[in-house]
Amino acid sequence: LFAIFAFATCGGYSGELRLSVDCANKSESDLSIDIAFAYPFRLHQVNFEAPTCEGKRRETLALIGDFSSSAEFFVTIAVFAFLYSLAATVVYIFFQNKYRENNRGPLIDFIVTVVFSFLWLVSSSAWAKGLSDVKVATDPDEVLLLISACKQQSNKCMPVRSPVMSSLNTSVVFGYLNFILWAGNIWFVFKETGWHSSGQRHPADTMEKQPGSYNQGGYNQDSYGSAGGYNQPGSYGQVGEYGQSQSYGQSGPTSFTNQI
């Protein structure tokens, strides 16, 4: 959603400014000169006509600057980020087993997330600078300086309407929000990789090995069980003389009676 807002607010932009040139000869004036421009902001290709205040002759002028590179780079990153997010969501939901197979999915996801975080920062910064230049190039006061009639004090040139740049400002904000979102997601993707899991297992393995060596010591396998003096008591468990005394207990009284 953040990626959609980023490229929609920038790629779908169109603006317009209006100028007024009031010549000394009122019949030669043009009080409504509309100049429209849009994404990708190749302003040097935006032409408009203005009166020269010298008869009916008019001149064709163009805005200054080409800011398409930063704008198109920003929109391209936003579109690819949206497509990758959509594909990753499908994999997370329907192909979780294949995603975790051989730890390849989390590693790829981690690398792509780091790359997109860097690209969001670069593209947002480049577009922020490009937007600043677009605002200067489309400032009505700056555009009036291009008109030759406005260089004569007898003529009055005024800006009528400035372009609305609120959606472009919003695109820059969403660009940096996407950078924060993707950069913060690096930690959560890193936790899915084997690097994080192996780092957590080593201390546990060490703790598991220590009781093993302790149990193999002389405490649990003590000398009492192996010597037979206590756990295997020969005089009590395998009774000899005492066990035979039971037969004396059973036969002794009989023989004693017979003797009597």
UniProtKB/TrEMBL annotation:
Transmembrane parts of this sequence: 73-95, 107-128, 168-190
Cellular component GO terms held in the UniProt record: synaptic vesicle membrane
Family matches, as PROSITE patterns: MARVEL
Annotated stretches, region: Disordered: 199-218, 241-260
Domain of life: Eukaryota
Keyword Cell membrane carried by entry: no
Compartments, as annotated in UniProt: Membrane
Residue span(s) of domain MARVEL: 1-194
Membrane topology designation: Multi-pass membrane protein
Bias (Polar residues): 243-260
Pfam families xref list: MARVEL
Keywords: Glycoprotein, Membrane, Transmembrane, Transmembrane helix
Family: Belongs to the synaptophysin/synaptobrevin family.
Name of this protein: SYNPR protein
Origin species: Ptilorrhoa leucosticta
Gene field: Synpr
